[in-house]
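Following up on my earlier thread - several people asked me to post the actual chain instead of describing it. Fair enough. Here it is, all 352 residues.
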Amino acid sequence: MSKRSPLSRDLWERPYGRFFNLAKGLAEAGHEVHLVLLNYKRQIEFTQQRDGIIWHSVNLLPNPLAYYSFVKTLAEEAHTDWLLGFSDTYFGICAVSVAGSVGARSLIDAYDNYESYIPWLKPLHWLWRRALKRASALTAAGPGLLDKISVDRPRDADNAQVIAMAADPMFCAGNKHAAREHLRLPKDKVLIGYCGSIFSSRGISVLFEAFHSLAARNPAVDFVLTGRKNLELNVPENTHWLGYLEDKSMVDVFRSLDVLVAVNEDSSFGNYSYPVKIYEALASGTPVLASATASTKYVLEDYPEALFAAGSSEALQQQLEAFITRPYSVQSKGSGWDEQVRCLESLLTKAN
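Reply from S.P.:
Thanks for posting it. Predicted structure:
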């Protein structure tokens, strides 16, 4: 159970990430898997089979309760063993509720600290914590987040498991010069990149301040930005802003870079965020430099040189200058989606 467009990308049109790859992997392992998507837009509703998965798309409007009714009816007719709630608080709450009414078991997955999204909506958070306490099993993108969502329940390996983020299969190492040529980027520059939302709330000022200082000191450096940008933000000089790119072009973006910067804040969101862009860059053979939050310290625990003090543009600038002088390589933590599927399947087998 998931919203149709987590991270603002339509799963049906552009299948990706944990929402799709975990379902696909379970289906390939021989399980009957239904992926029930809640569509916040008003589009044609459907049930179709693809990738070994039975897909269902249900619109939120005009009847917000239609999704819940659809899931409950489907769970009864399919004699469902497990309901898995992904991508937001609502789906975890719904999974536990439906499972209780049809005699199935429930799993809640979290890849962010969802309570940080709308901190003032206390009744929703109360329902979320209640669902976490009642769920048969929990999974999360990292150990800190798993600890947080497990706080009100007994914790053991049979009902709680880290299911890490991973890069989709298309992200792999390739020719840097060919990638730059495809994107019309300079071949003779040190390219430092940032991929993601370009908004003030993401601590982007730290990145821009470091870029400004570095550009003034080193004319051999250019910057590459991709993603949705606040129109009021002015990008630094020597910046190639590529806009919001289609998925296949992102492979070339990572391959073209000398280093990717991942910026976040030391906050209730940043400390539980495990940016998939880090995994994608590393799978593409590109080193990363990330804000030192609790979550990135886990992802990059073997590479302290790849972390800089969160919120400090001076620290970022110094780390970038050190990288340019002496580049380093970073190996991706964990493995791909195949290993994460095996972990999930094992949990579903063991959980009471």
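Residues 33 and 53 are 5 Å apart (CA to CA). That should answer part of your original question.
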